[in-house]
Write a structure and sequence with these properties.
By secondary structure, the chain is of the alpha/beta class. The chain has three domains: about 35 residues, no CATH class; about 80 residues, no CATH class; about 160 residues. Helix content is about 45%, strand content about 5%. The chain contains eleven helices and five strands; from the N terminus they run H-H-H-H-H-H-E-E-H-H-E-E-E-H-H-H. It has a five-stranded mixed β-sheet. Helix 8 crosses helix 9. About 5% of the residues have low confidence. The structure holds zinc ion (ZN).
Length: about 300
């Protein structure tokens, strides 16, 4: 049998030098001359934590004592969990909160190169968790590596920060991208001036269905509020409205777009910090030139707008 450690092998060598030769070694120490002991048992480094095959890691996690190895192990385990969604597995709100707290302590230990408060917080938190909790959390929160949270499509870059599945995220992104591909003229210019990043966000990120965040030059979309089709106030309509804001962010327009003459839909009258709503609405109305309301009502204004922006 090979030695289990360097220490054990040194012990074997020490015994051998003590007795010098095999013939000089007492009966019950004869085994130290077995050549197998010269080798050290090769231990495969654990590259990645695999919940299915290494269930005894949970015992090890619960015995956390604050050593570097313990910190590393806990950090590695947490990294296999998807904690970004903010959604606790059903019936596990308490345990989920404990796990999020553990992650915070690990971040603190990392940030301050060791933190005794972090270590004692981890110890205290683990007291509230059982092996069963850890197994369940691993099963329910294992991040799926084959499911990206970013998709770079032809017309924009999409990011999934919502709790939508990858399939939903992909489907929504593809639908929007296909639509963006139909833009032409100044509508297209608002899109192509720079690559556009579109984020699908969680419910608590904002109240509206979609929004252009000027400071970051990104779109936020709430996937749980998507209204399909392309009628007035549908998601596609709102996207073009938001592109109107983006157009103003990157281009100068030569007319006073905030004058009352540009009032159209009730949306265009909403109090806005940016005073851009009249423009954004006309930007969208001029793309969706349907017959019927509300487009027909503002036909003259829309045509005048198109002539000026072109
Ligand atoms: Zn707006």
């Amino acid at each position: 049998m090979p030695s289990r450690s360097e220490k054990q092998r040194n012990f074997i060598f020490a015994k051998r030098s003590e007795y010098k030769t095999k013939s000089n070694t007492p009966e019950d120490w004869q085994w130290v001359w077995d050549s197998e002991w010269e080798k050290i048992e090769e231990r495969l480094p654990m590259k990645r934590y695999k919940p299915l095959f290494e269930s005894d890691i949970y015992d090890s996690l619960l015995k956390f004592d604050g050593s570097d190895a313990d910190i590393k192990q806990l950090k590695e385990w947490l990294s296999t969990l998807n904690l970004k969604s903010g959604k606790a597995p059903s019936g596990m709100a308490k345990q989920y909160a404990e796990i999020k707290f553990l992650q915070k302590q690990i971040d603190m230990i990392e940030a301050y190169k060791g933190s005794s408060i972090g270590v004692s917080n981890i110890k205290a938190t683990l007291q509230h968790l059982t092996k069963d909790d850890l197994i369940k959390l691993t099963q329910k929160l294992s991040a799926k590596e084959d499911e990206p949270t970013t998709l770079e499509l032809k017309n924009a870059i999409y990011h999934n920060e919502s709790i939508s599945s990858y399939q939903t995220f992909k489907k929504n992104s593809e639908a929007i991208d296909k639509f963006l591909g139909t833009l032409t003229g100044f509508h297209k210019k608002a899109l192509t001036i720079k690559p556009l990043n579109i984020y699908f966000v969680k419910k608590d990120a904002m109240k509206s269905k979609a929004k252009y965040i000027t400071a970051k030059d990104v779109f936020y979309i709430r996937p749980d509020k998507i209204e399909s089709g392309d009628k007035y106030a549908s998601l596609l309509y709102i996207i073009v409205h938001e592109l109107g804001h983006r157009y103003l962010h990157f281009n100068k327009v030569s007319f006073r777009h905030n004058d009352p003459e540009w009032i159209t839909t009730p949306y265009s009258k909403t109090d806005s910090m940016t005073e851009e709503e009249k423009f954004a609405e006309l930007f969208a109305l001029s793309f969706f030139k349907y017959s019927g309301k509300p487009f027909e009502d503002y036909k003259d204004k829309i045509e005048k707008f198109v002539g000026l922006v072109k």
